[in-house]
Amino acid sequence: VPMKHHVKEFELILDPAAERKIWCWTVASKIEISGLGVLESSRGHLAIPNKVWLPSQAGSFGHTELDDDAVAELQVKCAKAGQRLGFHFHSHGRMEAFFSGLDDLNFSRLSKFGTPFVAAVFNVHGQVQWRVCTSNQTLIEWKSVIEGEDPSKDELAAAAAEVKQAVREESWLADLPKWFGGPQRTSRRRFSE
Questions:
Q1: 97, 122 in Cβ contact below 8 A?
Q2: Fewer C-beta within 10 Å: the chain N or C terminus?
Q3: HEC string of 114-131?
Q4: Cβ(67)–Cβ(34) below 8 Å
């Protein structure tokens, strides 16, 4: 049964297989990952079918960056199929599911695929922060929790293989000067299980 989110004038229908796939990737990865998916839209009704991908990318404990060529290939693939990339997701591991300043920058870049655009941040606890936006503003934002059983060992093994193939791990230490103006110690509140 598709997960339906009704928020204000929007209805977002998320294919349960797509949600499960993203959650398994999130739990299987030890670093942040991101991906893209098809978004179908019609007058306030938004749908994310089971067409989500984990393209080639670099990731660390504090960031993820999609490979431009891989994104371009997905755009062409979707365009040829009459579909639009309009969904971006990424993970925050065990941290809270929230949109950081870096996320805002990435989503504004990716929203150029067309509007509306849906963004989501998943964590290993099944918490998701959602956002529907246009190229220059957030229309609505809300949180949800994934229902159902935790991913199985078999699901996680398959997801880990996909993550390993798509994600090149980088050191997060190299990003500190860019993010904070120099090496600093930071902490974020963790969700309790």
A1: yes
A2: N
A3: CCCEEEEEECCCCEEEEE
A4: no
pTM here is 0.82
* The token pair that represents 150 in the structure block: 């935790």
> What tokens were used for 50?
């089971």
Residues 64-120 pLDDT 10s: 888 999 999 999 999 999 999 999 999 988 888 988 877 777 666 666 666 788 999
Beta bridge mates, 129: 121, 143
The burial class, CB within 10 Å (0-12 / 13-18 / 19+), for 179 is: middle
Structure confidence at residue 177 (pLDDT): 54
- Give the DSSP letter of residue 9: T
C-alpha to C-alpha distance for 19 and 147, rounded to whole angstroms: 10
The span from the CA of 93 to the CA of 28, in Å, is 9
| CA atoms of 141 and 143, how far apart (whole Å) | 7
Provide the β-strand partners of residue 10: 7
